[in-house]
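Hi there,

I know you've been waiting on this one. I reran it after we fixed the sequence typo, so this is the corrected version. Both the input and the resulting structure follow.
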Amino acid sequence: MGARPPKDPARHRIPEPSEYEVSIYAQDEFRLVAAIVLVSPSNKDRTANRKTFVNKCEALLKKEVCVTIVDVVTSRRANLYGELLDELGAQRTAISRSAIYAATCRGRRSGLHWWLEAWEHELVVGAALPTLPLWLSEDLLVPLKLEAAYEETCRSYGFANMQ
């Protein structure tokens, strides 16, 4: 006979999860190779939330996981890609100061050194979303067609042209 649960558990209301992520694993092994992370308003609203987001991306990059960050949140000004560059000790770019952006990053080891490679795009409200590289291995990439994914999502949910 199994143990009975306690009669009166402590219950705490917690915020809704704010992670929106697609994880991609290698076909031949259970190893994460890429993550597409959509920034939410709550990722940008408080210092602690921004730090958690940046630390997660940094940890993935240091495990040589390709990370794509897509930030279309216009209600808050923080740039999490820029904060990631700061955390890694990399130089900020113009796009790392933009309000909305998309960036693909990958960390690579070369001998004793660790390198960050980044492909970045500033987004413009009403303009088409970019295509970014999504690295599945050191020498294999697939195009991540953000505009096509957006349009297909709108069609599948029955939304009219969202432009």
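Quick highlight: The two ends are 60 Å apart (CA to CA).

Best,
R. S.
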